[in-house]
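seq:
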Amino acid sequence: MSDSEFMSLALSLARRRKGLTHPNPTVGCVVVKGGEIVGLGYHEGAGYPHAEVVALEQAGEKAKGSTLYVTLEPCTHFGRTPPCTDALIRAGVRRVVVAVLDQNPLVGGKGVAKLRESGIEVDVGVLEDEAKLINEDFFTYISQGRPFVTLKLAQTLDGKIATLSGESKWITSLQSRKFAHRLRTEATAVLVGVNTVLRDNPSLTVRHIPFQRQPLRVVIDPELETPPDANLVTDGEAQTLIVFSQRDPAKENELLERGVQLLYMERIELREFLKELAKREVVHLLVEGGAYTVSQFLREGLWDRLILFQAPKLFGEGKGIEDIGVKGVEDALRLNIRREWRIGEDRVSEYVPVMESSGLRW
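struct:
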């Protein structure tokens, strides 16, 4: 097997934990000795051993003189766990193949430098683009100090996301909705505006598919209108955070008593709000609606990926994306399509901002 084939296996290991390692990156590792795979590992999550340590432990004595393939540069600093570079050096690894350098300033090339200084041969850049995609949310979180933002929209062929009365259940098929729940498993938090809560009383939990944890539920609710008996307040299925700007001590106390987290901001500005989420270790934010909320993220350019579900239906009159600051054709928000596929009768497209066609920001 080639370097690319071994790295491809390491990437497949990393994908098993995509979205489950936050606030840490997603990492996979393969240890090879004499052409034989002697160790496999992936990072379970914050506080657990890193992928390299897991793979080295499985390899045991066979790690000496081996080649180690890892999807992200090994760390050199003490965090929740000791530095991985020290473990590689102690194990006597002969060569390390790294897919992509870590954008964390605590690492940022230092891991590779330390390994080389110790006499270990290091190669960087094998399947780099694939490795960047797996951790694009983590890299945005680290480099910009805010969560990676995915916008999710379901619409008809004529671009409507709801009828004139606001009804939107269900535009797309059950198969598409199951896939949308998979998107929730990859996110640290799921966000809606208060109008969605008042209209649909959503749970915003992962259902229909196997899952290992529920994302944080976030509601932008300036006037603190979320009912104390709303599903995302009372169901106990996941934690809920409400951001608001109008004080109501009695309502605040009632929500706090029900276990809701509250974030008061005198003025809710999305950029500052995202920084607050980053402080709470929200790495990846999935914005599910409604129309006004999604439009605000588009208008302010605070998004990294758009997942568009399109059903073969027509509403004619109805509600679509709202004002995003476009006054003329030349002002249109331009997107690059990254991939497209079908789920039953629905078409699903993934877009990124045209200025960052890779979906990464560095």
